[in-house]
Design goal:
The chain is mainly beta. It is 7% helix and 43% strand. The protein is built from one helix and 14 strands; from the N terminus they run ββββββββββββββα. The chain has a twelve-stranded antiparallel beta barrel with strand order 1-2-3-4-5-6-8-10-11-12-13-14. β1 (23-28) and β2 (37-42) form a beta hairpin. It is globular and about 50 Å long. It starts with 22 loop residues before the first strand and ends with a helix.
Length: 199
């Protein structure tokens, strides 16, 4: 059984969601809560680090990305009236023991479309002045997140066991490059899952 509580808390001077080395996660596109949609994310030693429990139908209009203790990190909302539709992610900050969403979205994801630049179905992501693309790869579940220079910042592929057996369409390996905010990458993974109706 995976551990639910972390062993050590990071120091206040370092970001708990960013490291100087490449990180690998296992994504299980299911919730730990019985009969709900969602996503559970494990680190390399099997600890749960992020989760989404979606009590509504797959592709619902609002979900919450949480850490292993259930603290909400992002509220992700579908916006129907943005040009061509899209999603917004609001970072949650603690205020007197409760979560308060920031007024302005921390990121926006425009609906996916065929991109000549990326060569496949792609979704444009805006985080402040930075731009990224979520690009679908060959196969049902594989995708990558790239910056405007085309550098890969994260990539998800179907997970295989050590003997090479595919673990199913709902289990992925996610590799995140150094100096990337893991919570942002996880939020973008969740948006892509909502678009694909997997969360």
């Amino acid at each position: 059984m995976a551990k639910v509580y972390s062993q050590d808390q990071p120091s206040s001077s370092s970001s708990p969601y960013m490291t100087s080395k490449r990180e690998t996660f296992t994504l299980w596109m299911k919730s730990l809560v019985y009969q709900t949609n969602g996503c559970t994310v494990y680190n390399t030693i099997g600890d749960i680090v992020y989760r989404v429990d979606n009590y509504e139908k797959k592709g619902s209009s609002e979900v919450h990305l949480m850490d292993l203790r259930g603290k909400v990190l992002f509220t992700i909302r579908r916006k129907k009236f943005l040009a061509f539709g899209g999603w917004e992610g609001y970072r949650c900050r603690s205020s007197h023991g409760s979560c308060v969403n920031e007024e302005k979205p921390w990121f926006r994801v425009k609906k996916c479309y065929k991109s000549m630049l990326m060569g496949d179905l792609a979704c444009q992501v805006t985080v402040g002045y930075d731009k990224y693309w979520i690009v679908r790869l060959v196969g049902k579940a594989a995708f990558r997140i790239v910056n405007t220079d085309g550098d890969i910042v994260a990539e998800a592929k179907p997970k295989h066991s050590s003997s090479g057996v595919l673990l199913g369409d709902d289990v992925l390996t996610l590799v995140v490059e150094p100096q990337m905010d893991h919570s942002l990458i996880m939020a973008l993974v969740i948006v892509y899952g909502l678009i694909r109706r997997r969360v």
